[in-house]
Design goal:
Elements: H1 16-20, H2 22-82, E1 112-117, E2 122-125, H3 140-147, E3 154-159, E4 172-181, E5 187-196, H4 197-200, E6 214-219, E7 224-228, H5 240-248, E8 252-258, E9 265-272, E10 278-285, H6 286-289, H7 291-339, E11 343-347, E12 353-356, H8 358-364, H9 368-371, H10 387-396, E13 401-409, E14 415-426, E15 432-441, H11 443-457, H12 467-484, E16 487-496, H13 498-505, H14 507-524, E17 530-535, E18 538-543, H15 550-569, E19 572-574, E20 577-579, E21 582-591, H16 597-613, E22 622-623
Helix pairs in contact: 2-7, 13-14, 14-15
Length: 624
């Protein structure tokens, strides 16, 4: 076998043992890639689970806070309604202690309640408020309650000097306040209540935030109202991540950022309280959330290491038997080639045949002695002489061809259809040394394809298009007519007296007449028109592209119908006897048409039967 001259300049092949190691190396790389993919995928899923859990916690706390705020707001409104008379200029003395606080609201208890007039003077208070508390007009909660345009509940946190519920030590308190207005909207005062941060913290009892989890309540402008757990310090500033997230999704969302109090990295979810201008922010520590992922990562790493060790061991075992298996495989391959019914041929890059199996001898008729050393062009028909050189050029470029269909010549000159698989043959150093061609005779398969297609779309007796093919062409004619606004015509033809001929002279004579009618119909129309047989003695002629003028189109259809009747009425010579036949024709002339092809055909059929019923002359046509 000749070697490709250009391949001699290529670099030498790597040692065989190194080539055998490619498989294990690929397995190891694949294992490592899968391990990395598994770790990365688990990381994403762990983060998604943590996010879902954090969002659920935020949803739970938001519902809990909203319910409690609703109840506190309702309570303050009830206090204002019940004791509103003190703001009318009469009633209790300033600083009076006649107000009783409700023992408990929802899950938290209010320490104290008071009512101040529009000037900030405390008019009524609970006994728990200190006596010096007489003026709250300068307090932040009072100013915010008065300034709240919607008259909604406001919440203030921080030291309240001389403020509600024993602020003598300057401890942080949470104050709830609501403006009191009359029916005309005039400010009458402010009702307010307070509780300690420890009491407010009871709202978060029973909720597991994890070791480093946290939650906070913030105002609409994201200022901190309360931070849980309180041991982590007073509420701090607002992270940039929260500000960006709220700008994008004001109602709810999530972000990842370090805590503003402790700097701990958390996955946070926030939600706006229902009917109250506050946000609840819940953060789950990434360290806690990814603990399971870290454990899984260690397990994946151990499995990957074990797989790599087993792969290397298996490779060492396979190397020992590879040479024996290779020899056995070579012998088996030779046996398969020689026993194959397909043509298996090898040839040089110059196109000269070097091997020729028994399948090739049976397919082409040449013996191995006749073909060895001969050019493969010998098998190509005259119009395919250059095909072999083109295939060789493609193989030189490294291509492999599968199911390449062409034609080849047998020794006796018979032309056969073949399907070929063409691939390069490499020598021991990996260079292209020749070409392998596996060919299969598909002549019978091709003939069967033609026959099947003919049976599907053609009438088996007359070889004319059948109903299926007619319907397809009629549909296409409608589309074309709609685009061009040109007329097309459908002629439904039924032979008169055919049953008498069929019954009197036999079905063979009837079949001969149908075949002859089909030939005459084809001769009477243009080449691009369609003549179809529906069955029995019924034929349909489809005339397309009749122009945009209706009269011209109708004249053309009439002319064709005359030719058809003249052709059908000519004598028929069947079994040595002369017969005559006539026909009835129903016509539809259309342009475009929104009707289905089946309906168009039914209308033409109805027109044909109308002709029969009216017993008109053979040259009478019905238009619809």
């Amino acid at each position: 076998m000749h070697v490709d001259e250009g391949s001699r300049d290529r670099p030498p092949m790597l040692p065989p043992w190194l080539g055998q190691a490619v498989g294990p190396v690929l397995v190891i790389v694949l294992v490592l890639a899968l391990a990395v993919l598994a770790v990365a995928t688990d990381h994403v899923r762990s983060r998604e689970r943590a996010l879902v859990g954090t969002q659920n916690l935020a949803r739970l706390i938001e519902a809990q806070l909203s319910d409690n705020f609703d109840k506190i707001d309702i309570y303050l409104q009830l206090v204002a309604l019940r004791h509103g008379s003190v703001l009318q200029g009469g009633g209790a003395d300033p600083g009076g202690t006649g107000l009783q606080v409700q023992p408990r609201m929802a899950r938290v208890a209010l320490d104290d309640v008071a009512i101040a007039d529009a000037d900030g003077a405390v008019r009524l208070r609970t006994a728990s408020l200190p006596a010096p508390l007489a003026q709250v007009g300068a307090q932040e909660f009072f100013r915010r309650a008065v300034a709240e345009p919607r008259g909604a509940l406001v919440v203030v946190v921080g030291p309240v000097p001389g403020g509600p519920a024993g602020a003598q030590d300057g401890a942080s308190r949470i104050v709830f306040a609501r403006a009191v207005r009359d029916a005309r909207g005039t400010l009458r005062g402010v009702v307010f209540a307070g509780m300690s941060g420890a009491q407010f913290d009871q709202l978060f009892e029973g909720i597991d935030f994890g070791v480093h989890g946290a939650a906070s309540l913030r105002t609409e402008d994201l200022q901190a109202v309360h931070y849980h757990p309180a041991t982590q310090g007073a509420p701090a500033g607002v992270s940039d991540g929260l500000r960006r997230a709220v700008r994008v999704a004001p109602a709810q969302g999530s972000y990842e950022a370090a805590g503003t109090v402790d700097g701990h990295q958390r996955l946070n979810a926030y939600r706006r309280l229902r009917d109250h201008p506050f946000y609840v922010v819940v953060g789950q520590s990434m360290q806690d959330a990814m603990a399971g992922w870290r454990a899984n990562t260690l397990m994946v790493a151990a499995l990957a290491a074990l797989t790599i060790v087993l792969t290397l061991w298996a490779w060492l075992m396979l190397v020992r038997s590879s040479r024996r298996q290779l020899r056995a495989l070579h012998n088996r391959f030779e046996a398969i080639v020689q026993s194959s019914s397909d043509s298996i041929v090898s040839k040089t890059l110059q196109g000269h045949i070097t091997t020729w199996n028994r399948g090739a001898q049976q397919m082409f008729g040449y013996t191995e002695a006749e073909m060895r050393g001969q050019s493969a062009v010998r098998l190509a028909p005259t119009d395919r002489q250059g095909e072999d050189a083109a295939l060789i050029a493609r193989v030189r470029r490294g291509e492999s061809l599968q199911d390449y269909e062409t034609q080849r010549l047998r020794k006796d000159g018979t032309l056969i259809d073949v399907s070929m698989a063409v691939s390069p043959v490499l020598d021991a150093r990996g260079r292209i040394a020749g070409i392998s061609v596996i060919a299969r005779d598909i002549s019978r398969h091709k003939a069967m394809e033609v026959e099947i297609r003919s049976m599907a779309f053609n009438d088996p007796l007359t070889r004319l298009p059948n109903r299926r093919l007619l319907m397809d062409r009629l549909r296409q004619a409608q589309l074309s007519s709609s685009r061009q606004r040109s007329y097309f015509g459908v002629l439904f033809i039924d032979l008169d007296g055919f049953k008498r001929i069929n019954d009197s002279f036999g079905h063979e004579a009837g079949d001969q007449m149908l075949i002859e009618v089909g030939r005459r119909l084809q001769a009477a129309v243009r080449q691009h028109d369609t003549v179809a047989r529906l069955g029995g003695d019924e034929f349909v002629v489809l005339l397309e592209e009749l122009g945009v003028d209706e009269k011209t189109a109708a004249d053309h259809v009439n002319t064709v119908a005359d030719k058809i009747l003249d052709a059908i009425e000519r004598n028929y010579h069947l079994r040595g006897e002369t017969h005559r036949c006539s026909a009835s024709i129903g016509i539809r002339l259309l342009v475009g048409s929104q009707e289905s092809p089946e309906q168009v055909l039914m209308d033409a059929d109805a027109a044909m039967y109308s002709v029969k019923r009216q017993r008109r002359a053979l040259r009478t046509f019905a238009f619809e």
